Amino acid sequence: MAPFLETVKSFKDVPITDDGVNTVAFLEAGDGVELTGLMSSVGSKAFSPVINDIQGNITKVRERYDAAPSQSATLEQLVTKENNNKVGSATEGLMWLLRSLAFTGKSLQQAQSNPSEELKVSFTKGYDVTLGPIHRGAGFFSIQGAIMKAAGLMFNTAIGYCPPRKNFYEKLAANPNGEPCSQEMLDKQLNDWITGLDTIITRMDKFYTKGKHGEIFKSA
Q1: Are the C-beta atoms of 16 and 22 separated by less than 8 Å?
Q2: Over the stretch 22-54, which tens digit does the pLDDT of each residue have?
Q3: Own/partner pairs for 147-151, CB < 8 Å, 24+ apart?
Q4: What are the backbone angles phi and psi of residue 21, rounded to the nearest 5°?
Q5: How far is CA 175 from CA 33, 129, 180, 183, 193, in A?
């Protein structure tokens, strides 16, 4: 087994054409995230609800693709053809999946930009610019507001169990069959992964907003 980032599909390798983001490749890259691989060193059940949420949304998108593959070759086509952003739809599931991935990407970007910063701090900052405004923005005295508050508590609890930075990076670099990859190689792979994900998130955020399918980031 090679170091973790060499065993999963990187978002930088997800094809993007004029028609949009390749659905199958995107889901394959998403399968490698789920916070399970990247955060498996946490070793805490606190992350289970977060992982289950991401897995559930990947399943919604994959089920839509499997049901109508000719209409779902790209994420944009899947959303346009489904034409349904109600709760339980693939469009809504994809929106929440993109939000969770944005949180992951921004958190890791923060960690990469600040080598002395512990993951708990980096992930808190990532949360504050992605999921935080969404969880805090819903009205408190409503069912939706209560759900958002509970989700915010779930994510903040999970962040509190982030592993020490040193342990996390050692796990990403570890190679059970040989020498761990160098810090230079790990940084390149991780930065490529983050950049590829950010490109997809930015594109889909514009698509969702323009088509009034929802919003990936909370509007000011």
Answers
A1: yes
A2: 999 999 999 887 544 565 544 456 667 777 888
A3: 151/53
A4: -85, 125
A5: 18, 33, 5, 13, 19
Contact present, 204 and 16 (Cβ < 8 Å)? no
Residue 73 has pLDDT above 90, yes or no: yes
Contact 120, 160 (CB under 8 A): yes
- Is 61:23 a contact under the CB 8 Å cutoff? yes
Strand partners, 16: 21
Return the HEC string of 113-140.
HCCCCCHHHHHHHHHHCCHHHHHHHCCC
Rg (CA), the chain: 17
For the whole model, what pTM was predicted? Answer: 0.90
Question: What torsion do the CA atoms of 203, 207, 210, 216 make, to the nearest 10 degrees?
Answer: -80
Q: Do residues 132 and 93 lie in contact, with contact meaning Cβ atoms separated by under 8 Å?
A: no
pLDDT tens column, 106-142: 999 999 999 999 999 999 999 999 999 988 876 555 6
3-state secondary structure of 161: coil
Burial of 166 (0-12, 13-18, 19+ CB in 10 A): exposed
Tokens of 193: 């992964």
Q: What is the DSSP letter of 216?
A: S
Percent of the chain whose predicted confidence (pLDDT) is above 70: 88
- Which DSSP helix (H) or strand (E) runs through 99? helix 90-113
